[in-house]
Structures
1.
Amino acid sequence: MQTQYKHFKKTDDYGEVKTIAMILTATNDAGKKAVLKAMHVVGEDEKDSVSLMTDAELTAFTQRILDSAYSEQDIVNAFNLTPPQPA
């Protein structure tokens, strides 16, 4: 299984990071993709350090958070989910 991590920052008018949308895309051996998402609200105690992170540091930060939020079993289970059907 291959995994890819992405992030999107939302800043305020002063350039401080307020939230980070985090996306984990996993691809299994059959080529099927599963996407897991999380939103991280940047706390007062971390806002200065997060705002100063390079893109590579922010990607590593994203990976740590998503890896702690989703277990290997969660990722495997995501491949078996059935998308919602329109009513």
Note: Residues 34 and 81 are 9 Å apart (CA to CA).
2.
Amino acid sequence: MNAQVAFLPTGSALQTACDLICNFGIPVFPCRPDKKPLTAHGFKDASHDLDGVELWWKENPNALVGVPTGLASKLLVIDIDVKNGAKGSDWYSENADRLHCGRVHKTHSGGWHLLYRMPEPGIRNSASKIAPGVDVRGEGGYLIWWPAHGFDAIGDLEDLALPPEWLLGLLTAVEKPTAKVKGNIGGPIIAGSRNESLTSLAGTMRRARASREEIEVALLAMNARCSPPLPESEVAGIARSVARYEPAADTQPEGRKLRLLTLDEFVQQPSRSYYVRGVIPCQSIVIVFGPPKGGKSFTVADLTMHAAHGLSWHGFNVARPVRVAYLVGEGTTGFKVRLRAWLEQHQNLDAIGEFRILPESLSLPDHVTEVIEALQTFKPDIIVTDTLNAYFGGGDEDKTADMTRFCGALRAVRDQVECSIVVIHHTGHGDQTRERGSIVLRASADVLIQVAKDAGGSGNVGFQVVNARDMEEMTEPLALRLRAVETSWIDEDGHPETSCVVEGSDAPVTLTGRSKPLGSAQSVVLELVRMLALQGSPNAQGEVLVARSDVAAIATKERGVSRQSVSSAWQALAGRKFLRLIEPGTVALKVKK
């Protein structure tokens, strides 16, 4: 009996399933922990319908993600089996350097799935025909998408290629007679064409640098379809004869030459991957969500104004000034005053940044072509849409088709303008912990950021990266506060125009649904640690050491916190990773540079 395996929670599996559908067009279906399909017709029920997929996982929260192989997903998978003494790893080790596989999944049994593009018109399933322990998942098969459940994956789906020619020769040689493949490779081979067919396959495989043994295995498999079969000694002779010749050098189209790079040539620092490190990666879709009046627009405006002027933002580095195009679909009057207040608070700038504004709402899906044309004249690095609702166009945010259309427009802008897009969006009415609307939006996002007022009631604002593809998430929110300021502008009644500027805060904040608010003593202790850390110098690890006794002295004498409460606060703060305890009597606080 197979042991049951514990996998990652359903949220991770559902997120991966939606990502496969939205970004790669790969259909999915749910499977039981024993890998058997949960649907009535198995892999034939695999779907691109995100609403249906989400319902599957709501009804089956422990379901594995199944993916059909073959032309339905355009995937061909070589399954390397090692369980129960299977010898697949031997074949994998011997051929690893010439498999040229762009994506490899580790399986729960310790084997591997090698993913390739499915050649036309298709390859069928087979078991241990290529080699012992090496199965083929093609037409009529499926695989469990193990990366959705915490297992390693190497390579990108964008890098999938057809199988190398020598492997394709093996695959076609073991095809069943009913398989539909090029020429007569899947049908019976009659007398008079047997030698020609076998020699042709041997030559193809030799040109792909297959060994004599590999050619002979393939020819013997093909010989089984010959009517009548040739003697095995004659088949072995064909393999031996063809293998005597050195493979011809590969030819390339005129004007294209392949060249191997030296270590010095290849190991060069890659181009900068962030516009704002830890917040906005290059060429990404960033969703900033939160409830109304929660500080989203103020925070994003402050963030992007800093980026446009090459200023680091509350510890997050901006390597150089970037170009920002801000699409203001609502509240344009207030936005003017907001930017005026920011500029007056930063009067020592060397120059005004490259920051452009489009002050009108429109349907992005319906006007994506003219939006791209307008943006390409400016070539922005970051585009902000404030808000999603102002640029969504007709339709329903909760409907898969309408949200898919909007996200498709976002990707078109991102890819053609070669920029990142920050979308400001609201939370749902009943759930303040996630963005409103169809899960398609979340599946399309590279970064999800929650911005909201402190759940503890301080009035401060929390900013937290809660989900990211290739970037560290934030364990605790960044604490900010909105400070009201008067500008030099005077309204028609003779009063100064007022707005808010965003400032950092030492007081800890808590976002709804993320973690419990700190107690009053914990808040005081953390605030004092941060204050004292600002007076020190960080070590090589970026940490500042603070004496607990110094914190306790201020907390008890000036803040009225009992020594027992201070003592209890240390472990709680360390447990939530606000700081690190170092014995004796010292704490370490990470400081952003």
Note: The longest strand covers residues 478-490.
3.
Amino acid sequence: MIVNVLYEAGLGDILMSMYSLTNYSALLAGYHDQHPDVQYRAVICTVTDSVESLFRGNPVFKAGYSYHTWLDDRTALIKEQSLGHPYIQDLYNADPHRELWPRHRLPFYLDEDEATIVARFLPLSTVAIHFFAGDGERTWINQIGGDGASTVIRAALDAGYEVLLLGGSSNRTVNNDSRHIVEHLVELTRDPRVHNYIGRHTPRLHSALAISASMVIGPISCYTSLGAVLNRPVFVMAPKWQAPKYAAPDQGIFSLIGTKVIEGTAGVHYFSDDPLPIDSLREFLDRLKLQSRDDSESPVTRIIKRRL
């Protein structure tokens, strides 16, 4: 039997849907315990072009995947129903005993080369920095430019961290010239403590680097969201109109990050107030450096330990 698993929206939503404990992927992992002969097939309907690597070769999805762009392929997605494969969402909703379905995270899939890259950084204190986002309004680099990006990186280095530069892998990003920032930072990236992955490798590797880092810094985007879901400290830059969401109880990732702000493991700042709140960032870096990092719940750590 083949069961479809539907993933919709942008890279951040799909990453959180794959690796959170509160979604259909978690149910998939539990359902597989009860029905080990079932094969799963991912149905991807997305606004971005960069999520395919999350599913390509992933042993969880032995029946493969289909890939549709949200904007122009919604009709094709509906036609998936004609293949006769049930959706795990529908199986869950139709089961009167659904609350008894166990939940645990899907394995975080990495190939051997990716696992080796991530393992290199696990013993280190690292900061993952992501200057981009899926649209121009949320993109930090548009607000601070190359000089501001250099200031952020130097702040992390001065606090004693090594730096992982992420992003630039999707054509969806609006007004994000990843080549420009790389050229602007060329001298800084010669520092052996700065590891530049902008525009290189896949979002799958970038995601693993983000959640294996000591903290994640960037706009409200895929990697800061995933870091928050998987219990990493995050320092988030956001448009001011989003401010009420962080204080509301029912706004998903915004509410989660808002809770972490109260707990002291997240910071949220707004472009219109100060696009480069460097003093707040330095304080956050120093304060979180003093806290021990618990990797026991990191799916990346678990899979690397199994591989190496």
Note: DSSP finds 13 helices and nine strands in the chain.
4.
Amino acid sequence: MVNRNGSRCVHDYIEERTALAPKNIAIELVGERAVTYEELNNRANQLANHLLAQTRARKPIAVITERSASAIVAFLGVAKYGAAAVPIDSKWPLERICSIVRDAESNILLTDNITEPLVTHLSCKNIRLDNSRLSDESTTNLATRVTADNALSIFYTSGTTGHPKGIIRTHNGMVSRLSWTEIEPEDVCSHNIPFSVGYSEQRLFLPLMRGARIVLVPDEVRKDLYQFAVAVAEKNITDLCITPSALEQMMSLGASVTTKLSRLKRVYVGSDVVSSRLKALCRDFLPGVCVICEYGSTEAGIVARTEIKDGASIGHPVRGTRTYVLDENMSIVDVDCVGELYVGGSSLALGYLNDPSFTAEKFVPNPFHQVSGARLFRTGDLVTHRGNGEIEFVGRSDRLVKVRGFRVDLGEIESYLRRHPSVLECAVVKEKNLQDARLVAYVVPKETGHLRSDELQAYLRKYVPDFMIPQVFMNLDQMPKTQSGKVQLTALPQVPERRPDLANAYRGPTGAIEVTLARIWTEVLKISEIGVDDDFIELGGDSLRGVQVVARIRSQFGVGVSLRMLFEGGTISKLSVRISSVVEPPSI
């Protein structure tokens, strides 16, 4: 596909918006001062000039920062310099961070005062974004030879081999989205996605390229759905991005929350499965809001969109994108027949960094297009297409799943579990229930006895992000196998609703507050018996379930409890002490 916007780059559009309205607000961070387009552009130019003074090699540059305006300065400054930014989450395990920096061959790291100590051992030049020397550089727009085909970013996602894989995306891939976005200069867009997630880049650059305002939502606000809704109202946010499960939970908090969403124009819920209950909630409480599912991937960008009221799980392809539903011979299947979805167009990534064979496997020549070099991306999604052009999701041809909005290859988790000295065999699956689906790991110990859940969680935490750690671990005597010797995933036993094996002994709740908290945890975590000294995380708790627990505690006791309390050694016993200091105990 030919990009109708020509050879312009992402920063060209932002520079144009800066010239038109330099004093307009570009970035707001909840609790901090706003940054104008002029200040953003000037600081990005200073960083780009500083990078040019360091080296003209333009190798990928790792960005490891907290959520701040400085992070956006970093992404824009790297784009102006002409290199690809490699966003890295500072909360990832250190071994994963080091692996990515080595794979990307980054010789420069951009950090802040919080993240700098994490990377001091790496043999790269570290540039602090709050370094006063940056302010001595020129604020003039650079005249570099960056083109729309240049790499804009490299996003690392879960990989089957046990190593994350880097996906190279271009300026052209982002610019092509201007042809269909609804964002206008008067809009205020939430940014509440980790910078390390591919979709984050769209939520960052599209508003700035349109001259709109971005509100950076801190993690502690994003994870507390009530406070998140308060921020939406206080900042007059018009465009909200949120996962379907989080939106459903947010709206379930009642009228005190739904009224705060009334000024929204649009809500983007990603391509996760949308429940019929969420559709009903949106219809009843957000009648004037356009709720949009955006289907896509890091490799292909946004492929198709649909309003959730329309019913299709994927919808119609966006402008500039071609979709094909093909069989194993790459022949187009009939309407309403199942095939794999292939995607073509200007939004495609260049491929996988340092992995030409996998790139050739997933990015294939387009036999339906006459232009030399045209490619198709094999999504791995099994779909059907209707007579009206809509696409409906059926399933996956591989073991890639979505967990709380993150893409996870179950094979990567298994590869790390197999390295555990006491694990003989393992299999990881995602539960099939529509909402709150958990990751479940089945393990066969090498010796007689049980492997404890808390030990396996602690082991995996050294290698993978929290969202990739299974909530449930089940010990098996042996794996069910097919005749060919492969693990028969469909024959794995169901997860019993019982307390996992933990280091601490069970101690039951006493008193009205502990009993009420135990009931809340039991209902949310689907565990029949929970001790007051059991750790929330070790029981399989995660941010999604933490949000539910916090909301129920607020509803039951009228007191706010932070997610941090649940994640940092949170037990029923400790929460009870916190709650009893401010409220009267309820009657049992």
Note: The domain at 512-580 is CATH 1.10.1200.10 (Non-ribosomal Peptide Synthetase Peptidyl Carrier Protein; Chain A).
